[in-house]
Specification:
The structure is a homodimer. Chain A is α/β, with parallel strands linked by helices. Chain A has 13 helices and 15 strands. Helices cover 40% and strands 20% of the residues of chain A. In chain A, strands 6-5-4-7-8 form a 5-stranded mixed beta sheet, sandwiched between helices. Chain A binds a DNA duplex through α1 and α3.
DNA sequence: TTGATAATTCAACACAGTTGAGTTAACCAC
DNA sequence: GTGGTTAACTCAACTGTGTTGAATTATCAA
């Protein structure tokens, strides 16, 4: 994030109402179908208050009536559920060579996505592409502009004090820019800026395998290796917005200590395969290579197991998540192999009797994870009540 | 924590007011001295609202008037500051052999502390000791019972679904108990239950070296080795309340991968010294041993540097804290040595130009850290606005 | 001395949630 | 079926809390 720390502010009528709308919306979303009285019970609001808010949300098209529930005594409760077309989120992922965009509805469904190659890297050119993509998305999906709740912008971290942080970036002009303000003005929308791993984590929560999870971690294969940490439905960004740089942690590998990234990452596997004379550029290449039982890839996977296991153990014990998700720029079959190859130690707080879910999951969103995640930031925000958060 | 997840609830007049009181109180505390208009500006409330709340807080004795500020144009602002005797927090640490208790005032000053040896370990006996300690604390410090804001109870984690989790604990009876309810009834106070590392982290925030920090980590030498994670002023507990089990992470040590706890912990140093024929039981023993340049201790410190450095690097990169604090059951000279021996890598998100603080700090609260932390949980809570948090 | 500046208060007001009584529609037992 | 029970829901009066804008006050600066 752009080091603009969330700031707690005071409550007033307007902010309270907003907060309560989000509380109600979150309950509707979590339940799928729910009646007003039940929302009231679980939210600490009176039925009357919930009734008023529900009327509001209905009028705004955010929810829809679903008939009455029967089978129990008493007046059957009118059920409500999310209205997917009640709001949309625009997501953008800026990569070195291209810009990806996606439009999601409230339910997290992708209703538009597109990739644009990007040769010019100055802020103005990239922004122009993004504006064009926004226009096109709304047109193709026939979504009125005022239904768009916000835009998420994803770019590889880590971030500096304001813009993107140096470290070999070819984009010095970006470093001077307050990204949130910049894009907010360009798109006339509330904007959320995030790194790829964090966004990917949110993507899984909004439409992937992390639905219903509140506390989990996402190990993201991207440029490097990142970890998105979600705690009680909120991203953990650290003091300077650079939490989750898991690629930089030391892990054991065949009797030596190495950086995780050097043993387990997209770059690592590519180097390894190159050394074996194999040119691999896309995830599809990797998928086919794995399917053909390539020995060089098998060797890489073999060496990756130990450091990856160590990293997983570390995350489990430091963060105690409900699950750890693996995803990003790796084909599903490779991810599945890695998940199978990880040694889960018993000496972990994640080892418990009352567990109902696997400790490791494969991400559902594939190659577009981070782009969907950009939009997911907006969706998630619509369901995350929090009085306060300046700007 | 006792796996009772914080739940966001709806806002109403009463909860909003409470929230706002805490927002104002937090501003007063952070500033030391501050006027109403300034609070209003920084909190998003109107001056009038702040005025009303300040009047409330004054009446409750939580703050005190401090004269007017001059030197600028306009009506001089009346300054307010915390009134230390406006509220007190009772903290209890339950150890296998003893019970520690402390009473802190609002400013975080310790105004009472005591240790009681505990031979009986059943819930009733321990609770009786705690009740006795509470009575004695209030008497000795001349604090009226209604000024006590709450009690913090600290016991070594990890916790199970309800009570303490097994793992060799001699206290099976505790496992069936909902600790928060149990102690809340016994002490007639709001109660916060936490593990030692988390409590220790809070102690530093309320009266130690973490004052003013919002996001940091505390490496706690206790029974094992724990990590208290504070993110934006709130503890990170993980999904099941067992985040921070850093003792279980694999780290490199002389070409092998070991668990951090086995190389860096109180138990580890004791075993090492025992093997060298040295009997060490207290921190004071260790302090003297270090002061006398004992070669066995030096050897232990030597071997601890590599694994500890790896752990520090891991925490920095996963969590991106403002600082990492070392403390707990180790004498200051040993902690200082360890801090000096850690290799801080440049390949860390913690390496930044705009840094004003050391990356590593020594905890200020010594041996009582966790006990003070128990009380600090209460104090911190009084300054942490959050609409919602069921029970 | 006078004007500018900024904190503070006052009083009317608006907003949102609460309360308690009353209504409605289903289930259940006879 | 009939009538009692249950629980969701609505209505209308009410309450608590923050906001607004004008008036007041105290200091600085020219």
């Amino acid at each position: 994030m752009v080091a603009k720390p969330d700031t707690v502010v005071g409550a007033n009528a307007e902010r309270s109402r907003n907060h309560n709308r989000q509380v109600v919306l979150a309950r509707v979303r979590a339940a799928g179908q729910i009646g007003r009285a039940e929302i009231a019970r679980s939210s600490g609001l009176s039925t009357q208050a919930v009734s008023n808010i529900i009327a509001d949300l209905l009028e705004d098209g955010m929810i829809a009536e679903q008939g009455r529930r029967s089978g129990v005594r008493g007046l059957p409760a009118v059920q409500y559920s999310l209205n997917p077309c009640g709001g949309y989120a625009f997501g953008v992922e800026i990569r070195p060579d291209a810009v990806f965009a996606a439009l999601l509805d409230l339910a997290g469904e992708t209703i538009f996505s597109e990739r644009r190659t990007q040769t010019k890297h100055d802020p103005e050119s990239v922004t122009a592409t993004i504006e064009a993509l926004k226009t096109r998305a709304l047109e193709k999906a026939r979504v009125p502009a005022n239904r768009v709740l916000g835009a998420g912008i994803v770019l590889p971290g880590p971030f500096g004090a304001t813009g993107i942080q140096g470290s070999g970036s070819e984009l010095p002009a970006w470093q001077q820019i307050d990204l949130q303000t910049w894009f907010s003005e360009a798109l006339s929308l509330p904007v959320f800026v995030e790194n790829d791993a964090n966004a990917a984590a949110m993507a899984e929560r909004v439409s992937g395998v992390a639905q219903g999870l509140e506390t989990y971690a996402f190990l993201y294969f991207g440029t490097g290796l990142g970890l998105g940490l979600v705690h009680q439905g909120r991203l953990i960004r650290g003091a300077f917005g650079n939490a989750g740089e898991i690629g930089h942690i030391p892990v054991p590998s065949a009797g030596k200590s190495v950086l995780l990234e050097s043993a387990v990452s997209r770059l690592s596997v590519q180097r390894h395969l190159n050394a074996a004379g194999l040119a691999v550029t896309s995830s599809e290449d990797l998928r086919l290579l794995y399917a053909s039982n390539d020995p060089a890839l098998a060797a890489w996977l073999e060496q990756a197991a130990e450091p990856l296991s160590a990293a997983i153990t570390t995350v489990e014990n430091l963060f105690d998540p409900q699950a750890i998700i693996l995803g990003g720029a790796m084909p599903d079959n490779v991810l599945d192999h890695l998940i199978g190859a990880v040694t889960l130690t018993d000496r972990s707080v994640a080892r418990r009797e009352d567990r109902t879910r696997p400790r490791l999951l494969r991400g559902a969103s594939g190659r577009m994870t981070a782009t969907l995640g950009a939009a997911a930031l907006v969706i998630n925000q619509a369901f995350t009540p929090m009085i306060a958060v300046a700007q």
